[in-house]
Specification:
Elements (H helix, E strand, L loop, with lengths): L4 E5 L2 H4 L7 E3 H10 L10 E7 L5 E6 L1 H6 L5 E3 L12
Parallel strand pairs: 1-5, 2-4
Antiparallel strand pairs: 1-2, 3-4
The structure holds zinc ion.
The site of zinc ion has 7 residues, from helix 2 and helix 3.
């Protein structure tokens, strides 16, 4: 079974840093919250405009290299917690 890829919603202010993608994978999310800076490309930089969840919803998401490799249609899930606040940090 494919590994689940968790994505986190970005606030509008951060979308510009993610090439307009509205969501990022948990690894990029962790890098963003730890560095207290903008997104970095150290873990990879793979825009996926139509990342698809199990129920068929699609999201414009930015994946790290490992998530991009693991991605299969339907194995993306929305993280319920840790939506970034208006300042871009949890
Ligand atoms: Zn990732």
């Amino acid at each position: 079974m494919a590994q689940t890829i968790w994505i986190h919603k970005l606030v509008d202010a951060k979308k510009a840093d993610a090439e307009g993608m509205g969501y990022i994978c948990e690894h990029l999310f962790q890098g963003l919250t730890q560095s207290e800076a903008s997104l970095t490309k150290t873990k990879g930089w793979n825009p996926v405009p139509d990342a698809t969840t199990k129920d068929g919803s699609t999201y414009a998401a930015l994946f790290c290299d490992s998530c991009a490799k693991n991605y299969n249609n339907g194995n993306v899930r929305m993280a319920k917690e840790a939506v970034l606040d208006k300042d871009g940090y949890p």
